[in-house]
Write a structure and sequence with these properties.
Helices cover 67% and strands 5% of the residues. By secondary structure, it is mainly alpha-helical. Strands 3-5-4 form a 3-stranded mixed beta sheet. A two-stranded antiparallel sheet has the order 1-2.
């Protein structure tokens, strides 16, 4: 298990020795002496020891004794004031020497860390491209350019040509981007209509390969770009995957797109961004409060189980990205819209892998080929077996995670039913209403919390992570000298993923990002579009550009309020009365139009069907015994010790009926 590094000082900064401690002390002393304004200090001492002391002592003494103070007493207080003033100056200089140096060091480390994050971002995105074949690499690279609202027109044109291989479309989108920048949208529409037939054909073809990219391309031809103030959606479940990789000491759970996400989040928090989230607090009857809390707990556990299961789905898609059955550019999908379609693609891709291995296994047993051909076939089988074993390990993790979703859904269904019965029986005893900050009595009160790092915490995080980033830089440089390209790529990918795990563990100590509620709150906010940062920029320019992108983001508080309002109306059937809307608008800055939309959507009978999240349920069968048999045969043939036993998989899964939830056992023959 990876652990965050201890907070200790390093003797190296960017590969160079730091200055000796005695020279550092002399430098800090000189800086402190220069910082002190000696003219003002001497004038202040003279003024305090002279007129101020004389008039204060004379007045006090005269009022008390009716006569002027003696000269020796005035001299005593003057000398006392001078000595006390000199001592205060010395203490101030000493503070600047000791604490001032630490403050400057903390600020330097914070700046250093902020400057390193964009470098890691660009490295992770390039490493992500390396894992795809040239065709898919072209798609994902084009996505990064097209969703960058600051990309130059010629860059957008090149990306469109890579996607469509149409010079006409690339020329048209270059002109569209030029006119869009000038606000000439009438001309944008003219150019779009000129190439509309070819554009529609290209979009139809692209949707078969990458639906997300097709939508981005269509927006570009309408003159629409990503709004930097709105940011972009975060990738679902990235925090859970990173922390799981650290807990299991297995980078299979972690994708390079997750490295991108954690680096963006880290930069936002170090830049001072505040992410709010809201939770309901119940006051009133004990029966209603208990059933409400039970419903919230069941909902959190179900949501956490779905996030974990979807993370496994995403990782399997990434692992199988070369298969024809898998939708392209899985790393570009922030949220998996259809888990059923994704799982169906995965099952088909695994079956294709099995058939390829089985066919090559038959060729091996024929023994009618040359020795060289059989050695080549053996290498192919060994490589495919390693890939298939890794796939089965992830599939086992997916199967178990889906089993947890089934159990969590059963608990949620029961909690929903119990809550409905409680409302029906005790509804008159408890008036369901939203309470404002000044309201008294029974009801539901919204509690606001924030996810943020204060100044000291930001400096503490930078102090821990700055040597981690420096070590990553040195290790990446050392890995460049590995002669074998495959091993070099594997080593560099592992280093980048390890950096992501260590960063997440440091954030977990400060913000408890391992909690599902915190993860959901973070992933529900939009991220800064740091992909707009270009390579080759100076450190200060990179930091300034990235800081501006973070500060331009619209405050996420309003979206969080809308989410809690939807949650209360859907799951707790809270009526959005005029009083409730006034509380949400006046105290939490909710949008009245969005509240009207929420009230309309949740007024239908279908709202309850959505409340229990049935669209996330997935009927997933255990792996076929054929897979295990083939792996065992190849293990014996190739002399590889088996490391996976499918018999450890659970032999049961759930089926769901409209009337309720029923658990049924699957056939035990395939899982035994």
């Amino acid at each position: 298990m990876y652990r965050a590094p201890s907070q200790h000082r390093t003797k190296h900064t960017g590969g160079q020795d730091r200055e000796p401690e005695d020279k550092g002390l002399v430098r800090r002393l000189a800086d402190a002496l220069q910082r002190e304004s000696w003219g003002r200090t001497i004038l202040g001492l003279a003024w305090t020891a002279g007129p101020v002391t004389y008039f204060a002592l004379f007045g006090g003494y005269y009022i008390s004794y009716g006569t002027a103070p003696p000269t020796n007493l005035i001299l005593y207080f003057a000398v006392y004031t001078v000595i006390a003033g000199v001592f205060a100056v010395v203490m101030r200089i000493g503070y600047h020497v000791v604490r001032g140096g630490e403050k400057e060091e903390a600020e330097r480390l914070l700046t250093e860390t902020l400057g390193d994050i964009p470098t890691v971002l660009m490295t992770a995105r390039n490493q992500l491209l390396e894992g795809y074949d040239p065709s898919n690499r072209r798609l994902l690279a084009a996505k990064h350019v097209i969703e960058n609202s600051d990309a130059l027109p010629n860059a957008v044109a090149r990306a469109v040509y890579d996607l469509t291989e149409s010079r006409q479309l690339s020329d048209a989108v270059e002109g569209i981007d030029v006119y869009r920048r000038g606000g000439l949208y009438s001309r944008v529409e003219d150019l779009r209509l000129e190439v509309l037939p070819e554009l529609e054909a290209a979009l139809e073809d692209l949707r078969k390969r990458a639906p997300v990219l097709a939508d981005l391309l269509n927006d570009r031809f309408h003159g629409r770009v990503t709004n930097k103030a709105a940011g972009r959606m975060r990738t679902e479940g990235f925090l859970e995957r990173i922390l799981s990789a650290g807990e299991n000491d297995n980078f299979t759970f972690l994708g390079l797109s997750d490295v991108d996400e954690i680096m963006v989040l880290l930069f936002e928090l170090l830049a001072g961004r505040v992410l709010p989230y809201y939770s309901p607090h119940y006051s009133g009857g004990q029966i209603f409060r208990d059933s409400s809390l039970n419903l919230d707990k069941a909902r959190r556990e179900y949501r956490s189980a779905v996030f974990a299961r979807n993370s496994r789905l995403r990782m399997l898609v990434e692992l199988l990205n070369e298969s024809e059955e898998i939708h392209r550019v899985a790393a570009a999908i922030p949220v998996l819209q259809s888990v059923q379609e994704m799982s169906s693609n995965i099952v088909s891709a695994i079956e294709t892998l099995y058939e390829d291995m089985a066919r090559r296994s038959e060729m091996w047993h024929r023994k009618d080929s040359s020795k060289k051909a059989r050695e080549h076939l053996r290498d192919q089988l060994a490589q495919e077996l390693r890939h298939f074993r890794q796939t089965m390990q992830l599939y086992r993790s997916l199967y178990e995670a889906n089993h947890q979703v089934d159990r969590a859904y059963t608990a949620l269904f029961a909690a929903e039913k119990k809550y409905s019965n409680t409302r029906r029986r005790h509804g008159k005893e408890f008036a369901l209403r939203l309470l404002g900050s000044e309201d008294k009595g029974d009801g539901i009160r919204i509690i606001e919390r924030t996810i943020a790092l204060d100044v000291r915490e930001r400096q503490s995080v930078a102090r821990v992570l700055s040597p981690v980033f420096r070590r990553w830089n040195r290790s990446m440089s050392a890995a460049e000298r590995i002669p074998d390209e495959g091993r070099r790529r594997e080593a560099q990918h592992a280093l980048t993923k390890q950096l992501a795990v260590e960063s997440a563990l440091v954030l977990d100590k400060k913000l408890h990002v391992s909690r599902s509620a915190v993860q959901f709150a973070i992933e529900s906010t939009n991220a800064a579009a740091l992909g707009a940062i270009e390579s080759g920029l100076t450190r200060s320019y990179r930091i300034g550009w990235a800081m501006s992108l973070v500060r331009e983001l619209a405050p996420p508080g309003r979206e969080a309020v809308h989410r809690i309002a939807r949650y209360l109306t859907v799951h707790h059937h809270l009526p959005l009365t005029a009083e409730a809307r006034a509380v949400l608008v006046e105290e939490f800055d909710a949008d009245p139009a969005e509240l009207d939309r929420i009230a309309f959507e949740t007024s239908t009978e279908a709202a309850h069907e959505r409340s229990v999240g049935r669209e996330q349920l997935l009927l997933l069968a255990p792996p076929s015994r054929r897979y295990l048999n083939l792996m065992e045969r190849l293990n014996r043939v190739l002399g590889v010790r088996a490391s996976l036993r499918l018999s450890s998989l659970r032999p049961a899964y759930y089926k769901y009926e409209d009337a309720g939830v029923q658990q049924s056992a699957a056939a035990s023959t395939d899982a035994s």
